[in-house]
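Two entries, shown back to back:
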Amino acid sequence: MAKLPKKHQFLDLSDYGRSSGHWIASKLQHTAFTPIHVTTLFIITGFTAIGFLLNGYLITSAFFIILKSIIDAADGELSRLKKSPSYVGRYYDSIADLLLNFCFLLTFWYITDISIIFMLIAFFGIQLQGTLYNYYYVILRNSVQGDSTSRVFENSKPKALKGESQSRVNLFYKIYNTLYICFDKSIYYMDKNASHSKPFPKWFMTLISLYGLGFQLLLMSLMLVFKLQSFVIPFFIGYSVLIIVFVCIRKLILKP
């Protein structure tokens, strides 16, 4: 089930795991497995990748990073198949992604001679990249009546959906907001008027998908396959330059 109406669907370079994720979700649709269980599974898969990376099994680690990306797509697919949207699940997924990103980069720092300062800069950069992608994608989804579980501005506790408790929603929102607020506000202040634009064209969204988490993990995996683990942290620092490019395209070409 798509997040966007067919008219507005675009080539999402970060969404290569969607078809496999949908297949996994379809097998779990009529079982007791919930999207929360699937999210927990991708956390385990991510730490498995880290374990192999620490022990020098680069290609195996790359495989599990890609598998994590595929399973990451499956939790949302399962939620849509079961018709059970959840704010708890949405926040849990995002919290897990951020913590895994930090652990991935911390591991690359540990196995190389890179400065911890550069590792922290790369982490901030990779989170800003993903936030920019999500910011524009959520704006698009909301403007064309697509999936609405994610909100353009996560600045207040949402009302719990059917089947989830308000107290759990409040707790996960608080954790999410603590972890993401600096990234969300940074991107918002770079492009405050983005939500007033007409629906973004497909070519622009495809460009932005270069910053989607799935594509970021694909790049990490490719560098591991080619034994370029020492370049992962410097690469993602330099990759952040495109943030300015994408924001300028939106402001200068896709004006409200």
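entry 2 starts here
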Amino acid sequence: MKASEIQNNELKTLPLPEVEKKLESSSNGLTQAEAEKRLTQYGPNEIVEKKTNSFLKFLSYFWGPIPWMIEAAVILSGVVGHWPDFFIILVLLVTNGVVAFWEEHEAGNAIAALKAKLASKARVKRDGKWITPAARELVPGDVIRLRLGDIVPADARLLAGDSIEVDQSALTGESLPAERKSGEVVFSGSIIRRGEIDALVYGTGANTYFGKTAQLVQEAHTVSHFQKAVLKIGNYLIILAVALVAVIIIVAIFRGDPILTTLQFALVLTVAAIPVAMPTVLSVTMAVGARLLAKKQAIVSRLVAIEELAGVDILCADKTGTLTQNKLRLGDPFRFGCFGWS
């Protein structure tokens, strides 16, 4: 566990006077000079998003067992001058990469969706006065004012005042607001549903409960059952094709066949050994599925997730309804005529 995480866990449970002492702050907040110093030390109060190069991301769709074999077939087709085969195989290869890249690009970024739930402004006491800087400028030790409807901009401990009600459904899935009293913790991304109170910030940016959630989303890289199956097929075909091509080359050397004739045989074998159209067919099929799901307001961030969800037999969810948006919506009204209502 990192030192910052250990410190935040302590600040979450220690008595409030000790928290103020550790943060070298009080109910009067920080000076602007001290806040700027701490901003340099702790960094901005925001989720750091790992940017990936779009071009390198696109090239990644041409890396793998089956793409390697298709690329080998393209090269062999060009070497022996089979241009119809060369262009057909090349078009299939590029189509597969373009479709997969575009669909996942359109799905958007999960981190961007999480960042949209964070507060953009905050009421902060600096030099004894209340100001409203950008929430990204908050630092540990700041005193903030939380009011009805506000999004909590950072992890904080409540100072003296009446109890408030906080909607933490975005973090815990609990649909009902939770009551929080003086000295207790409120997390970044929560929404104030009742009351008004001051709070002492102890965690910002990636050190917040919300920031750790976003970090888990960024670091989540798993290989799906679908990907494992495709890799297994690809590896089997590569071994088979390499073995057979090796046999052809050895036989050709002993027989003294021309190199061009040998390459033509190798090309025929390579093209026959690999399902050239399989990646394109799979990508297009899943892209169609992603479009249909999008019409039902379901965003697919990874195309292979469609196959994964299709293979689910039992879906378990807790009692809090974490899989919902925790939003009520009025449906189509209807009348119970049997009670004589009008």
